[in-house]
Amino acid sequence: MNKILFERIKELSGVDFSASKDRDFPSKGFAEGLGTDEVVLFDEREKYRIEGQTHDMVSHAIKHVISLDRSLVDSVVTKVKNILKNQENIIIRNFYGKPIAVGEEAVKRLNLNNIINTFDRLHDKMINKYPLHDIEKKLIPLMNLLTNRYQKEISKFGDNLDIDRSFFSDIKLKDKMKEGRVVRFQSTNSHGKSYYYYFNYIDNTIMVREALGSGREGKILTMFVIDELNPSTGKSMRYISNLRDLSPRAKRILGFT
């Protein structure tokens, strides 16, 4: 049964997405308040630990989909609470393994942040092929809802215009970008690594792919809403302005010249 569930996650992760070493709790990086450094466990012998190449598309979906579809995430959180409300073997621990709440008190403490972290740990267990508790298996369809929504957003980047290869005039290309057409450009980040960036002006989303040289692309590294932390006019331009080595035309289209 566990193998079938794992294969289901692999199917959902079919997007050509990079996998890297496990990170800490996803809600710790973007959320505030109770539960950002907590995880829900179903066996008092278990503790959270970082291990494996588990930071992949599902991990990014769990973290970033809240900025794409808050109502979906809120609905999923409510359903998780309903599934766990009568669960006896439930314990909440912090990142360092310290027990925070047990049983009924743990159920009362369930919130967006520790549930998001729990999804991430569940995905880690599946990738590492660890046995799942029956209650964890019931959470997988809900985690899949978040992943599917994230994949749907990624699919929007398939129809794009390369800024430096497009035959449109600058004015026409700018118009298409502002109408919602995704534009692609190559740039270098602050660490000196070159990537392809896909920018959706309307949704204010950006997708990043590896640049392998000679125009070739590698795997997707991430996709997120630029303003997810602190919505403000022009933040997307400030994000892109921190990139280096933009071509002269990319600077014109994106509004830097």
What overall form do the CA principal axes indicate? Answer: elongated
Main sheet strand line-up: 4-5-6-7-8
Give the oligomer, counting copies of the same chain as homo and different chains as hetero.
Answer: single chain
Q: Main β-sheet: number of strands, strand sense, barrel status?
A: 5 strands, mixed
Total number of helices: 10
Strands, total number: 8
H/E order of the elements?
HHEHHEEHHHEHEEEEHH
Please state the structural category: alpha+beta
β-sheet strand percentage: 15-25%
Radius of gyration: 20 Å
Share in helix: 40-55%
Distance between the termini: 57 Å
Number of domain modules: 2
Mean pLDDT: 83
Polypeptide structure, described:
It contains 10 helices and 8 strands. With 257 residues, the chain is of the alpha+beta class. It is elongated and about 65 Å long. A hairpin with a 4-residue loop joins strand 6 (194-200) and strand 7 (205-213).
Topology (elements, then pairings):
Elements: H1 2-12, H2 27-30, E1 38-41, H3 57-68, H4 70-84, E2 91-94, E3 99-102, H5 104-109, H6 112-127, H7 134-155, E4 160-162, H8 170-178, E5 182-188, E6 194-200, E7 205-213, E8 216-225, H9 235-241, H10 248-254
Parallel strand pairs: 4-5
Antiparallel strand pairs: 1-2, 2-3, 5-6, 6-7, 7-8
